[in-house]
Write a structure and sequence with these properties.
The chain has about 270 residues and is of the alpha/beta class. The protein is built from eight helices and 13 strands. Strand 8, helix 6 and strand 9 (about 185-190) form a beta-alpha-beta unit. Helix 6 crosses helix 8. The longest helix has 16 residues, at about 65-80. The relative contact order is 0.19.
Length: about 270
C-alpha cells in the first residue's frame, strides 16, 4: 500500500517478510531543523540470482550496517535532547535466490514515478534505498542523509577505513566532512559526475541498476540522486569502514558503528 516496490522486489527470494522501519524524534513544537536519516538494512546478502562467490558471503551479515547506524543514532536523540525533528527510515530484508526471486531484466516502478531495470540482483541496496529516499523526500526535510554498505567499488577507491561521501549540496558535504574529522571517522568526498549518467541509461526504463566496469561507487550514487528531488542530500558509502577485519584502537573486530558519531555531531550542530 505504500508502493515500496524496490523493497518488495529484493525480498521476493526470501521466506521472511520484509520490514520497513520508521523512527521519529521531535523534541519541541518548533524544532530548528527537520532531518531524514536513511539506512540500508540488508540483513544478509547472497547476491540473489546474481550469486556472490562463497568467500564474499562470509561477512554479509554486515550489509545492514547503514540501517544499524541510523537506529543507533536515533536511540541517542532522546538522551541528548536536541532541538531537531529527525525521522529514520530503514528498509530491511535479506537478498536470497529463492524460487520467486527477482530476475535480471525485471523493471521496478517506484512511488515517485521513476523506473529501474534490474540487470544485477547483487546491486540490491540501491533498489531498497530508492524507496526510502523517495518516501523521505515527500516530507521535504531540510536535509537527507543516507548510509549504506553500498559498493565494493568504494572500497577499491578508498580502502577499508575510509567512507565515500557524495552530495548534491556542498555546504552539507562540508559540514559532514568537518563532523567526521572531529569524531575521527574518515570520510572522503567523491564527485557526482553527471556525464556518467550515460552509463546507467536503460532502453526499457529510466535507468538500470548497474553501470559500466568503472566508477561503480559514482554510478550507484547517481541512481540514488534520482530519488531525492531538490532536497539537500548526502550519501555515505560505508562499505569499507563499517566492518573491521581485526581489532583496532577504536573498536574490536566486527561491526564498527561507523557513521553514528558523525551523525550525532552533525545533528548537535543544527
Amino acid at each position: 500500500s505504500m508502493k515500496l516496490s524496490g523493497l518488495l522486489a529484493v525480498n521476493r527470494g526470501s521466506q521472511e517478510e520484509p520490514r520497513f522501519i520508521k523512527i521519529h524524534y521531535k523534541s519541541s513544537a518548533n524544532p530548528k531543523k527537520k532531518v531524514a536519516l536513511i539506512g540500508k538494512g540488508i540483513t544478509f546478502d547472497s547476491g540473489g540470482l546474481s550469486l556472490k562467490p562463497a568467500k564474499s558471503m562470509e561477512t554479509m551479515k554486515l550489509d545492514m550496517a547503514g540501517g544499524a547506524a541510523v537506529i543507533a543514532a536515533m536511540s541517542c536523540l532522546p538522551k541528548l535532547g536536541l532541538d531537531v525533528e529527525v525521522t529514520g527510515y530503514v528498509p530491511t530484508t535479506d537478498n536470497l535466490p529463492g524460487h520467486n526471486a527477482q530476475k535480471p531484466g525485471d523493471v521496478i516502478h517506484y512511488l515517485n514515478g521513476k523506473t529501474i531495470e534490474v540487470l544485477n540482483t547483487d546491486a540490491e541496496g540501491r533498489l531498497i534505498l530508492a524507496d526510502a529516499l523517495a518516501l523521505a523526500a515527500q516530507q521535504q526535510p531540510d536535509y537527507m542523509i543516507n548510509l549504506a554498505t553500498l559498493t565494493g567499488a568504494c572500497m577499491v577507491a578508498l580502502g577499508p577505513q575510509v567512507g565515500g561521501l557524495f552530495s548534491n549540496h556542498q555546504p552539507l558535504a562540508d559540514e559532514l566532512m568537518r563532523c567526521a574529522q572531529a569524531t575521527d571517522e574518515k570520510l572522503w568526498q567523491l564527485p557526482l559526475v553527471k556525464e556518467y549518467k550515460e552509463l546507467i541509461k536503460s532502453s526499457v526504463a529510466d535507468m538500470k541498476n548497474v553501470g559500466g566496469s568503472h566508477g561503480g561507487a559514482i554510478t550507484a550514487a547517481l541512481i540514488l540522486q534520482e530519488f531525492v528531488g531538490d532536497v539537500p542530500w548526502a550519501h555515505l558509502d560505508i562499505a569499507g569502514p563499517a566492518f573491521a577485519e581485526s581489532d583496532n584502537p577504536l573498536c574490536p573486530k566486527g561491526g564498527t558503528g561507523f557513521g553514528v558519531r558523525t551523525l550525532l555531531r552533525f545533528l548537535s550542530g543544527l
